[in-house]
UniProtKB/TrEMBL annotation:
The modification 4-aspartylphosphate is found at D54. Residues 5-120 form the Response regulatory domain. The keyword Phosphoprotein applies. It holds the Pfam family HD_5. This is Hydrogenase transcriptional regulatory protein hupR1. One of its GO terms (biological process) is phosphorelay signal transduction system. Keywords: Phosphoprotein. InterPro entries: Bact_response_regulator, CheY-like_superfamily, Sig_transdc_resp-reg_receiver. It comes from Stieleria neptunia. It comes from the Bacteria.
Amino acid sequence: MSNQKILFVDDDEKLLGGIMRQQGDEFDLTTALGGEEALQLIERQGPFAVVVSDMRMPAMNGIELLKRIRERSPDTVRIMFTGFAELDSTIEAINEGHIFRFLAKPCSEKDLAAALKAGLRQHALIEAERELVEGTLHGSVKVLSEVLALVSPLAFGQSTRVRAIVDGILKRVPIEDQWQLEIAAMLSSLGCVTVPTDVLEAIFDGATVSADEEKQFAKHPKLAADLIKTIPRMEYVSKIIQLQNADHGMPSVDGVPVPIESRVLKLAIDFDLKERFCESPLHALNELRENRRAYEPEFFAALEDYVKRERNFKHVKLSVHEVVQGMVLAEDIRNQSGTLLMSKGHRLTGSAIRLLENYYKKKILSGPLKVIVRSEPDEVENAPPTTAGQTPEIPLPYVDVTFADS
């Protein structure tokens, strides 16, 4: 008895009974009377290693069912079992359902068993490949990332932020084999280890550097690509990294087609750089919109949704009497002699707010506090256009000034 589960779907109850009597002793079989019941079974008992579906069923045909199964469980091997293998439906099944094999009705007991065994072997191969990718390969990449963190913390910081942005986009626009893009994001700054730290810091801070230093920095994607392209299964990742700066309008660079994943990576890197100089992620998004033709529209829309829903924070200046618990400082707080009192990123508690109030009473501090608060989703839509070098005006949100523990 195989330990991998198989789901057989048909609208003919007698046929399902026959299949169960015929193959039930050799395989771990479950049957479903139609597409809706199959989806419910997958929800409760899935995933299944193999799903075999009839083509013509009421309410939901086999193509639609296998397509929806692929969306929910892409590793499940899908087999079509039909007595009506017209050319059009065959093409549609291949394109929409990405089926592994066709079986024609009637099918002998021997042929059906052989097809089920082949499906289980295919599923085992898929699982083995996933273990290789998620285990060995990701482990190796993790080591490379840790080395990058030791050699160039600045570059590592950028890679970490870019990876988070890429994840936000991929949640909204999933792509095939997205592990390759995830790894590319983690290693996108690997070539920066060859760039002197002061040059790298100047570029990330938007400072002017010499033409030679610009050229040196511009080479970092190619250097990273050359470093990793010899690693088995990393050839495509290498290409994604190498072409990370290609605009949307460039179908190829030096005859090499630009991977769709490079489009996502460029968008994430550009947004990260904008975010460093803008008042908030929403304003960084606004500035990026001015050049949105450089990006794939679908990915840009995903970034917009991600920023509005998950990175909708901004910096505002409030008096000490307006800050509340849970707010986070957006800049270091120092006294007049430069001594650090509270660091950027400090989450304010009741006691921290009382300490700040004492500083103000004793004239140790003056002026407003800069804190991070959540923006309203529609603020970015209504925000005025910004120009480089200018800090946009930000409408202040409603602030509850009640102190919970005072």
